UniProtKB/TrEMBL annotation, chain A:
<dbReference type="GO" id="GO:1990131">
    <property type="term" value="C:Gtr1-Gtr2 GTPase complex"/>
</dbReference>
<dbReference type="GO" id="GO:0000329">
    <property type="term" value="C:fungal-type vacuole membrane"/>
</dbReference>
<dbReference type="GO" id="GO:0005634">
    <property type="term" value="C:nucleus"/>
</dbReference>
<dbReference type="GO" id="GO:0009267">
    <property type="term" value="P:cellular response to starvation"/>
</dbReference>
<comment type="subunit">
    <text>Component of the GSE complex.</text>
</comment>
<keyword id="KW-0342">GTP-binding</keyword>
<dbReference type="InterPro" id="IPR039397">
    <property type="entry name" value="RagA/B"/>
</dbReference>
<dbReference type="InterPro" id="IPR006762">
    <property type="entry name" value="Gtr1_RagA"/>
</dbReference>
<comment type="similarity">
    <text>Belongs to the GTR/RAG GTP-binding protein family.</text>
</comment>
<comment type="function">
    <text>GTPase involved in activation of the TORC1 signaling pathway, which promotes growth and represses autophagy in nutrient-rich conditions.</text>
</comment>
<protein>
    <recommendedName>
        <fullName>GTP-binding protein</fullName>
    </recommendedName>
</protein>
<dbReference type="GO" id="GO:0003924">
    <property type="term" value="F:GTPase activity"/>
</dbReference>
<dbReference type="Pfam" id="PF04670">
    <property type="entry name" value="Gtr1_RagA"/>
</dbReference>
<dbReference type="InterPro" id="IPR027417">
    <property type="entry name" value="P-loop_NTPase"/>
</dbReference>
<dbReference type="GO" id="GO:0010507">
    <property type="term" value="P:negative regulation of autophagy"/>
</dbReference>
<dbReference type="GO" id="GO:0005525">
    <property type="term" value="F:GTP binding"/>
</dbReference>
<keyword id="KW-0547">Nucleotide-binding</keyword>
Length: 318, 374
């Protein structure tokens, strides 16, 4: 199953940089060497088993943009699963950016009316303090420019974990039945006496599913597991921080021609195992019960592998 | 020992002088190493106007003097003989007279005050230049300093100067500062012996004793240090440090239980016991040698919990596993092990770690007693 993902935005807004971080495991410091993208660079990224992301990194110089909107219009905008539009927080030409953005929305409406739209307010590391105020203002401005279509806005930077948060949630929308995976992770967590279990895609380390679906705790439907998790008040940025940490370490390993394979930790505050779950995924099991040993967790992971291979196949077929 | 002096907290601290022109990067170096400042943030540091003394406790207690760029031997306010080490930071692009004169001036004064002082030159911001220019500038700075010293007097030929290429943006700074530190640790030969024994008994090709927060290595075994391996260990430690607090739980009963009474201090008679184990009968367990922690504290003692971690670096055999074992509250043992040894002989490795830990704790205790005059 192929999903087409459009990556658009003004030249220099950071599209190729984020692609090279997420999909090629390059460090942020190397992005300064990237040249402007000429026309469209297409990438096929095998994401989960049979799910292939067909990433269209569209060079943002005016001449290219004009051609996307005219002669290449149908090629660009048809069969789109997701459009990601990147706005540089420091952009000097916001009016022009918005104009191109609205034109792209039009194209999308015409050829792929079902496509999801994500807006990234990028280079947040450069934003003036207070950053959240700057971001909220930008977000409102973008939501207004988007008309009635539903859009999701994230603030991102290649220098921190925010990029993983945004991309995890983008990719999440492309996985049919992610909720089934989630339910099985909840069962698996209980079997491990784990506080939480997180499933990552193997190469990007984006979060695919967790044992704790995000339901506001106030909802009556909140399960016992969720209230138990609430009690721990875990850091809300833990998923994306984990992606970032592991990606950075994977990069360190590759520099010495080693390949990261698995990690286990018995630290003061928790015990954790990060190991292969299926051919395309890694699982992180977090335990706060000090009597549980990593060896037990590893055994449980080994026993759960077959089930998850099957599930993963299923979740993609439907 | 003239260069160790009693500081306010009643501990004899080894003093390190950090010198260099304005904007050379002294404060950045101090903050990145000892205050966990992300390298990019050094951009926002303000110019140091007065001497700032930073204390840092690792295997030995340190006092680092971060000096303003315009300081002179006269305005230092303390005799140079008090310092065990002088580090002069010079921007790699500064090939001019001024920084080199200043450097030579301090070398001469330091050498006269205490010929045994270690004199270190950090040729800094090295990542700014391409490899060829980097080597060339480094060579030129080295040569000019040597020439100038010889011009002053032929006797300065024998001054032992150590040059290092450093940058806050990679681990070259950690490696250089580690080497500076090694000259200050009197117990280094004993620590190295313990590491050699550990490596020999565990089939480890390389092991480091790291200070966990600064990521400086205090000692390593006799095999040569290759920068790539050192960098990997540094990165691993950095990841573990970040993970350490990431999944911290607010629910008190979820934490490892704290001992209610002060734990007995480490004694040399303790046997390598792992403490009582309690495993959930309902969950599958089985691998020999994984320790089940039962208590945690900031003061190490034999039956207490010591964090550990391991990462396997290759799915197939032979494969390498990188292990981490906390040894004292500040120090951790990082070792490369063949994965087959780590997985097949876990009990032996754990035993070797316990033996190593007892040795290091004993040495630390001796250092501490000597420092507090106890
Ligand atoms: N400060 C900061 N700089 C960034 C960030 N992301 C990217 N950059 C920098 O922005 C510059 C341009 O990035 P590119 O990824 O080439 O931009 P692009 O959107 O692909 O540009 P075109 O291919 O011309 O459309 C590079 O120098 C990056 O290093 C960020 O989050 N923060
Ligand atoms: N490129 C680069 N810049 C550095 C490095 N270390 C420090 N700097 C920068 O040099 C400037 C001066 O640093 P600072 O520590 O205040 O210098 P001090 O006056 O010697 O204390 C700051 O802008 C730092 O960001 C380095 O290794 N590489
Ligand atoms: Mg580009």
């Amino acid at each position: 199953m192929k999903k087409k993902v459009l990556l658009m935005g003004a030249s220099g807004s950071g599209k190729t940089s984020m692609r090279s971080l997420i999909f090629s495991n390059n460090p942020a410091s190397l992005t300064a060497r990237l040249g402007a993208t000429i026309d469209v660079e297409q990438n096929h990224v095998r994401f989960l088993g049979d799910l292939i992301l067909n990433l269209w990194d569209c060079g943002g110089q005016d001449a290219f943009m004009d051609s996307y909107l005219t002669t290449q219009r149908s090629t660009i905008f048809q069969h789109v699963g997701v459009m990601i539009y990147v706005f540089d927080i420091e952009s000097q030409g916001m009016n022009k950016d918005l104009e191109y953005y609205r034109d792209c929305l039009e194209g999308l409406k015409q050829y792929s009316p079902e496509a999801a739209v994500f807006l990234l307010v990028h280079k947040m590391d450069l934003a003036r303090e207070p950053k959240n105020v700057v971001f909220e203002k930008k977000k409102r401005e973008l939501e207004e420019a988007s008309g009635e279509g539903a859009v999701t806005v994230f603030g991102t930077s290649i220098y921190d974990e925010s990029l993983y948060k945004a991309w995890s949630s983008i990719v999440h929308t492309l996985i049919p039945n992610a909720s089934v995976l989630s339910r099985h992770l909840t069962t698996f967590a209980a079997a491990c006496s784990a506080t939480e279990v997180v499933l990552f895609e193997r190469t990007t380390f984006l979060v695919i599913a967790t044992s704790s679906p995000v339901t506001p705790p106030s909802l009556p439907g909140a399960t016992a597991e969720q209230t138990d998790l609430d009690r721990h008040e875990l850091n809300p940025t833990r998923y994306e921080r984990t992606s970032e940490l592991v990606k950075a370490f994977k990069h360190s390993c590759s520099r010495v021609r080693e390949e990261f394979h698995s990690l286990e930790m018995e630290l003061y505050d928790f015990t954790a195992v990060l190991d292969e779950m299926t051919r395309n995924t890694y699982v992180l099991v977090i335990v706060h019960d000090p009597t549980i040993e990593t060896a037990a967790l590893k055994l449980n992971i080994r026993m759960a592998r077959r089930k998850f291979e099957e599930l993963q196949g299923d979740s993609l077929l439907s | 020992n003239g260069h160790k002096s009693l500081s306010g907290d009643g501990v004899t601290r080894t003093k390190i002088l950090l010198l260099g022109l304005r904007r050379a990067g002294k404060t950045s170096i101090q903050q990145v190493l000892f205050n966990n400042l992300p390298p990019k943030q050094t951009f926002y540091l303000e110019t140091t106007m007065r001497i700032v003394k930073h204390t840092f406790d690792t295997v030995i207690p340190l006092e680092i003097w971060d000096c303003p760029g315009n300081i002179t031997v006269e305005t230092l306010g303390a005799p140079l003989s008090q310092f065990a080490t002088m580090i002069f930071v010079i921007d790699i692009r500064d090939l001019y007279n001024q920084p080199i004169s200043k450097l030579v001036e301090f070398i001469v004064a330091a050498y006269q005050a205490n010929p045994d002082m270690s004199l270190e030159v950090f040729v800094h911001k090295a990542e700014k230049l391409q490899e060829d220019d980097k080597i060339e500038n480094f060579r030129q700075i080295h040569e000019r300093v040597s020439d100038r010293l010889l011009d002053i007097a032929p006797e300065y030929e024998q001054v032992q100067l150590n040059f290092h290429l450093t940058s806050v943006y990679d681990h070259s700074l950690h490696e250089a500062f580690s080497k500076v530190l090694h000259k200050l640790v009197d117990s280094l030969p004993y620590l190295e012996d313990l590491l050699n024994v550990f490596c020999a008994n565990s089939q480890s090709p390389k092991a480091f004793l790291f200070d966990t927060t600064s990521r400086l290595y205090i000692a390593t075994d006799a095999s040569p240090v290759d920068s790539a391996t050192f960098n990997l260990c540094c990165d691993y430690l950095q990841m573990l440090n970040s993970f350490g607090t990431l999944y911290k739980s607010a629910a008190a009963d979820a934490r490892r239980p704290l001992p209610t009474t002060p734990p007995p201090s480490a004694s040399s008679t303790s046997s390598p016991s792992r403490g009582p184990t309690a495993s959930d009968p309902g969950t599958p367990t089985g691998t020999e040698g994984t320790s089940t922690p039962n208590a945690t504290t900031l003061r190490p003692s034999r039956d207490l919990f010591y964090p550990s971690a391991s990462t396997s670096l290759h799915p197939s055999t032979p494969g390498t596993t990188l292990t981490y074992h906390l040894i004292t509250p500040q120090l951790a043992l990082l070792a490369l092990l063949p994965t087959s040894v780590y997985e097949g002989r876990r009990g032996l490795i754990e035993f070797n770690v316990v033996f190593f830990r007892e040795g290091v704790q004993e040495i630390s205790q001796v250092e501490k007693e000597a420092r507090t005059g106890g």
